[in-house]
Amino acid sequence: QTEKPLYQRILLKLSGEALMGREPYGIDSHVLGEVAEQVGEIHELGVEVAVVIGGGNIFRGVSGASRGMDRSTADYMGMLATVMNGLALQQALEKVGIATRVQSAIDMKEVAEPYIRRRAIRHLEKGRVVIFAAGTGLPFFTTDTTAALRAIEIGASVLMKATRVDGVYPTDPEKDPSAVKFDRISFSEVLQKNLGVMDATAISLARDQNMRIIVFNLLKKGNIKRVILGDPIGTVVEG
Ligand code: UDP
Questions:
Q1: CATH top-level class of 9-237
Q2: Where are the domains of the chain?
Q3: Is the minimum distance from the CB of 138 to ligand 1 under 6 angstroms?
């Protein structure tokens, strides 16, 4: 085998918006299929893949709260949205022949397993993709923080944060085309410069536990595999 993965077990963070594609909200089945294909490429290399899925394409707590709902209720709705995305992703992965399990941080035994860390690890060892849904199960957190937490819990060697841009920039590259991407940046710098990579809770948790994060563009075909093979794309956040 000439293609040797750099990482044996990874945590992939997919935002809800990543699944939206060109749709105004909800899920773009075409994008979902492409994500499944990319995951299939690294699964074939024997990489153990866990996924944390967001829900922003369906519902975000802050948006409900801004319309007068209390924040906790709105956040629980947001968490339920991630379960829908999780089920959609599970279908897409199984369509390309990958066995998956969805584990939910909020009990929903008719549609998903409960989150049980040791069980999740066992699934990974058996080659199943594990999708973590319902975030942390707690309001006032994000799925980015969930991604950092689960990555640490399962002993992933890297947290791969999928985005729509090529990596971390000093200013928003979608608004400022002259911005130059960082190839590498430290956790503290991300926090000091208030860069919108992930929220501060997620970044500080990753920093405390030395969980390397790679921010990369999901929309370019084959990018997940390129990161796994060690191609220097995206931005590495560490140290
Ligand atoms: N959420 C939460 N606790 C968590 C994870 C998520 O309350 O541990 C809620 C929160 O309201 C958030 C929504 O679920 O807005 C969807 O998650 P997120 O915004 O992180 O999704 P993404 O931006 O990745 O699509």
A1: alpha beta
A2: 9-237
A3: yes
